[in-house]
Amino acid sequence: MRELLTETTQRRSLDLSDLPPAEQAALIAARSQELQPAADALAERIIEADKKGRRFIAKFGIDPTGAEVHLGHTVPMLILSRFQRMGHLVVFIVGDMTAKIGDPSGRSDERPALTDEDIARNLATYREQVSPFFDFERAQFRHNGDWLRQITLPKVIEITAQIPVSMPLQREDFRKRLDAGQGLSLAELLYSVVMALDSVETNCDLEVGGIDQFLNMQMCRKVMDICGQTPELVVATSLIEGTDGSGAKMSKSKGNYVPLTAPPGEIFGKIMSVPDRLLEPYFQALSEWVDSELAVTRERISSGSLHPMDLKKILAGEVTAAIHGVDAAMKAREEFVARFSKRTFGEVDDLPTVADLSKSITEVVKALGFASSNGDVRRVAQQNGLRLVVESDGNQEQVTLSADEAREPLAAVVKDKLDGQLGDFYLKVGRKLARINPTV
Fold this sequence. Notes:
By secondary structure, the protein is α/β, with parallel strands linked by helices. Helices cover 44% and strands 12% of the residues. The strands form 2 sheets. A 6-stranded mixed beta sheet has the order 1-6-5-2-3-4, with helices on both faces. It is globular.
């Protein structure tokens, strides 16, 4: 395992500057969900920059709406890291000004307003958190407030006068909110225009972002054209699902995320909790494994020569090593194996305990932090992942609970399903486990 992690971790720092432009474009395209207008155009843009004796500029932006950067943010950052290793200039922009509006992408309501103090507190450690993925001695780390505060009203009017209202309103999330009679502010309509001014300021060749930013990046192209610049190319990456397996994307609001600030053991454990079906998309999005290696792994899983649990330990090691290094990843792996190779649940001494059995199972699961919504609990139950467990003398009996039963009080379900049985009772939610107070 150590040799494997050492090799794959070294790939994250390989010098790619000697690759021809066509191969650079192909390497970027291999991990992009959308590359606009095309890989050929990316190769041509790289050649054009070289002919003009300037560096190709790749931009990425993130708004400090919370204090933590999480693993979902690193998917486009890994693409950006490749650009840096190809010898191009990477510009990492923290949106201290755009955070005041709040990116409306995918939102069903308006974001709460952030104060200057909130934003300053949130972004205090952003550079440190993303430093495992960039060499900031060769990259730029900038705050967009430095130039957006200088934009005048006449300039805003000059730009917005050339943008039809239909362009921001083509967004499905905006249409849904309007159809539902929910609020939509003018500031939110202007968000993508303000974000585009970052591209104008940097005069970037390309922008990287999640696929949820695709329409925002289209606006960047439009505004750059209005301002007399060559529109940026767009690389949109896939969004990874959260660790709870509910189908929702990884996000802080859902509580299904892996923060980059987490210690090695927590990162390793959170990755080990993801459903098996997420192994391949996680490897594609978060590692430097190539497609041929993923194909071989897929075949070995199908043939039964490789167990998904063993592959998951490799993935957890990959992610942990990327953030904390190989030594920390190996230690986290050893601690995980030592803890979860124990024969019974009763030997695990730090499980959360459910003391109030009067609440519904759904409410209990949310209170434990095992799910963030009723829908998440329902989906786990529909996937047969919601169970009561009774353990006695090393023997276990598990009872699968339905989505309807999840709405019932836990006490009533325990009495119905486990009445008369002796032993220790547990509530299992996917791979997460809680002890049910045996005295109740």
